[in-house]
Amino acid sequence: MQPILIFRFSQTEGPGYLARFLDQEGLPWVQRNVDAGDDVPSSINGYAGLILMGGPMSVNDDLPWIPEVLELIRQAVAKDIPVLGHCLGGQLMSRALGGTVVRNPVKEIGWGSVRRTDEAAGDEDWLAGLPAEIEVFQWHGETFSLPADTRHLLRGEHCANQAFVLNDRHLGLQCHVEMTESMIRAWCETGAGEIRDNLGASPAVQSATVMQEDAGARLERLHEVADTLYRRWAKGLVRTPR
Fold first, then answer.
1. Cβ contact 154:133 at 8 Å
2. For 40-73, what is each residue's pLDDT tens digit?
3. CATH of the domain spanning 4-234
4. Contact (Cβ atoms closer than 8 angstroms) between residue 160 and residue 143
5. pTM higher than 0.85
């Protein structure tokens, strides 16, 4: 099987728990670190899937690699090579597929609940075995629109569009399900100013102390959610060379 291509856009926003999942499932992967100067390949050929992690930048920023990543997403979708996006990655997917990314009414930083949409109320495929309401981790100030022909899976109180699926193969997430304790600590340190500036200004922003309280148990539940979503996404991986 050819490797899955993972893009990292920020040093502290790597694959986290996702890497553990892929290794446990025996799924090969390679990582390109755009933040460290790695280039974006011009073709998706040679990869079984495409995964996009998060980052502090906006999809609307004038960065040279953004058009290249958008084109790679479109190639993957055209070739039925599964795409998975986390936060910025989900926003890149939306933009590549004709959606828009705009400022969310409030910032979301920390733990929060999302629910199945009415459209996904009976979903026992992507959301198999999960409760109607689940706790996820958030860190974003923008939100994506739902591209044409996508199915809306999850919604939140402070940000309506939390997950979508296209062609039963490509998954775009606004929330983070890949978190680990070390990632939460690192984000709280590097994002201390952002937390301070928004704490109290948004009902969806938590302090670093609250974010790290009972993190072990919370992450255990979050990883069950991640396992469900990642396992379903992995079913669509391209198993033969292209």
1. no
2. 999 999 999 999 999 999 999 999 999 999 999 9
3. 3.40.50.880
4. yes
5. yes
